[in-house]
Amino acid sequence: MTTTTVEAAGLGKRFKDTAALDGFDLVAESGTVLGLLGPNGAGKTTTVRILTTLLRFDTGRAAVAGFDVAKDARQVRRRIGLTGQQTAVDDLLTARQNLVLFGKLFRLNKTRARERADQLLAQFGLADAADRQAKGFSGGMKRRLDLAASMILAPQVLFLDEPTTGLDPAGRREVWDAVSGLAADGTTVVLTTHYLDEADRLCDRIAVIDHGRNLVDDTPAGLKRRMGADRLEIVAADPVDLPLLEQVAAAVADGDVAVDESGPSVSAAVKDPVAALTAAATALQDKRIAVADIGLRRPTLDEAFLDLIGRPDPKEDAQ
Amino acid sequence: MTALAPLPDETLAGRVKWTLHDYRAIVGQEFTHLWRQPANFLWALGFPIVMVLLFVYVFGSAMDVTGQGAGVDYVAYAMPGMFAMTMAFGFTNTAWAVADMKEKGFIDRVRSMPMASSAVVVGRNLADTIHAVLDLLVLFLIALAIGWRSGGTAWETLGAFALLIWLRFALIWVGIWMGLLVKGVEQAGNLFAVAFPFGMVSSVFTPPELMPGWLGAIAAWNPVSATATAIRELFGNPVAAGASWPEQHAVLAAVVWPLLITAVFLPLGVRRFRDLGR
């Protein structure tokens, strides 16, 4: 049984002269993780802000947990959790005090707020740090506290806006585990990211957005498949061999052959990867060409992404 | 997974009750801050204390505000000024706190929650007003320690404190509006450059009479001067008031100015808060 928990159609939003969203559609089935992927300024955050009732929109309609975002904002707010780009926890308070404060602001009574804080501290692995001030927490711990705060009412839908930006690898892993756990418990998660490995790892479906419009909506595997063939890559031991390697690669290629002078390497799109690899290796042996490396590469989501949007993501480069 | 439905708030009475509950939670948060970081509270008072020591002990001996000779009664003149100045500068703390909440996403989180969104603004004001009362208490004790005395009756003294809090209350709305307006805490920090002349071009440390004509006129009409002069009257401290209308009707001016400020900046702040959703 699948039901739709988040449904937006034809969302449009203008900020002065620029269209942040220009007819954007989005659907998330209950209990799944939907990734919103796109370069900076594509409209990811705008979408999350609209769906979490923070921002009014100009055109289209949006429903979350069965309620109209524009008309029933209060009902929507009771059924969602939001973790924004910044960790919105109070640094001066302890982890427990933070959760009790948010519990009260979610209108639980004092006893219930305390009970819920204890449950969440245990669930997010913060029980040992419960009575320490949040300002001393690592990035991953702060993020987990942030997630815990947005889970106080056990929302049907959790929105995460770039949940791991700025975290070290250990911190990212902590957050990933927490998000996976929530999804396994049945929470619908909508997250934005510009990390493709994150989308690949966490998401059931990925919606690629650019200039406020849908580019693709697919599973991670489907997105990669769109990139087409696997590639055979040969790295030269000596750059002077490149023309010879290009001949070898061309002989087994089923598509384009690319030469990378800086590698120095050549690569070719192949349909039958194992046959191509065997043939290329035999040819290299026959011609007695020494190579530094030879192997098969599956397209990564990065390539799929860059291919789709047709320009490099500046922030991705910076990191 | 069990849904944790919040208690109902569909009736008007329920909504009022929960709104007050939300205000209390925000005010409680502020007090936990105070409790955990009492040093911050004292540091914030460091500036007025240093100013007072500077003016009373360094410049004071050269000040002749009463026409009876340099240094005479300067403590009695400067102390009410310092009270008023501390209230005037306080709005920068509010602006900073609001900008910080906005920058850290705290305001967004709260707006996405099923609580009264006014709690951020109103709760902030309540917390800062209570904060101002504590500020005044500490400064009052310091003033007593260096020899200042209120010559007014108990009611006059209390009335003077009420006027001080009234000024701060009005300026908190300015702080909230500015905190929502600025880009981030860095800009909010720069607001002190606005607050400083606002606090100082006034009768706080020097009578406007002794300033160049145009500056004296600005100082005389400054809301901070109105409060400073009014509380000097109520405390029975030397007034050194000039002939301008606000100086001659200081108590009335000290009531009306904050009212005007609130009438302008409360709606501005609320509108700015609503516009966060644009």
Automatic annotation (TrEMBL), chain A:
Pfam annotation, one family: ABC_tran
Entry membrane topology: Peripheral membrane protein
InterPro entries referenced in this protein's UniProt entry, alphabetically: AAA+_ATPase (IPR003593), ABC_transporter-like_ATP-bd (IPR003439), ABC_transporter-like_CS (IPR017871), ABC_transporter_ATP-binding (IPR050763), DrrA (IPR005894), P-loop_NTPase (IPR027417)
Main location: membrane
Subcellular location(s) per record: Cell membrane
UniProt entry tagged with the keyword Lyase: no
Taxonomy, superkingdom: Bacteria
Keyword Translocase in record: yes
PROSITE patterns: ABC_TRANSPORTER_1, ABC_TRANSPORTER_2
Gene Ontology CC: plasma membrane
Residue ranges of domain ABC transporter in the record: 6-236
SUPFAM superfamilies: P-loop containing nucleoside triphosphate hydrolases
GO molecular function: ATP binding; ATP hydrolysis activity
Any GO BP: daunorubicin transport
Keywords, in A-Z order: Antibiotic resistance, ATP-binding, Cell membrane, Membrane, Nucleotide-binding, Translocase, Transport
Family label: Belongs to the ABC transporter superfamily. Drug exporter-1 (DrugE1) (TC 3.A.1.105) family.
PANTHER family, sorted: ABC TRANSPORTER ATP-BINDING PROTEIN, DOXORUBICIN RESISTANCE ATP-BINDING PROTEIN DRRA
Name of the protein: ATP-binding cassette domain-containing protein
Native source organism of the sequence: Glycomyces terrestris
Taxonomy of the source species: Bacteria, Bacillati, Actinomycetota, Actinomycetes, Glycomycetales
UniProtKB/TrEMBL annotation, chain B:
Keyword set, alphabetical order: Antibiotic resistance, Cell membrane, Membrane, Transmembrane, Transmembrane helix, Transport
GO cellular component, one term: ATP-binding cassette (ABC) transporter complex
Transmembrane annotation, as ranges: 41-62, 74-99, 120-146, 158-181, 188-205, 250-270
Compartments in which it is found: Cell membrane; Membrane
InterPro entries: ABC2_TM, ABC2_TM_bact-type, ABC_2_transport, Nod_factor_ABC_transporter
Lipid bilayer topology: Multi-pass membrane protein
GO biological process: one example: response to antibiotic
ABC transmembrane type-2 domain boundaries: 39-276
Principal location: membrane
GO molecular function, one term: ABC-type transporter activity
PANTHER family: NODULATION PROTEIN J
Membership in a protein family: Belongs to the ABC-2 integral membrane protein family.
Name assigned to this protein: Transport permease protein
Organism: Glycomyces terrestris
